[in-house]
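Entry 14. Structure prediction run on the chain below.
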Amino acid sequence: MRYWLLILPKLPANAMAISPFILLKKASQQKDVVLINHEKIHLQQQLELLILPFYVLYLLNYFINLVIYKNHYKAYFNISFEREAYSFEGDLNYLTKRKLYHWAKFFVKSSGDRLG
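Output returned:
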């Protein structure tokens, strides 16, 4: 997977993946292999959904979670795409063995399995 790193000090998040870019708040984050892996997982999710539908589903999932949890952080950490990325960010070989649409398994889990 080809991607480009961009350093944006005013980025509102710590890091962000917007295909084909990984946006970082600080130059020092370029050496954070776990963070980069997390964002690469998002890039793969975006490719699977042909990019634009990823963002629609991501936001829809966030807003549904916001209604459920009434808390930004709980809503964010329970987005299915984030759940997959956080679950496997430490496995630097994850993307070589990952099955297509694996994020969907996190989407269909019951609310009792959710974080928060």
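The helical segments are 33-48, 52-69, 72-77, 80-88, 94-97, 103-107.
Filed with the rest of this week's runs.
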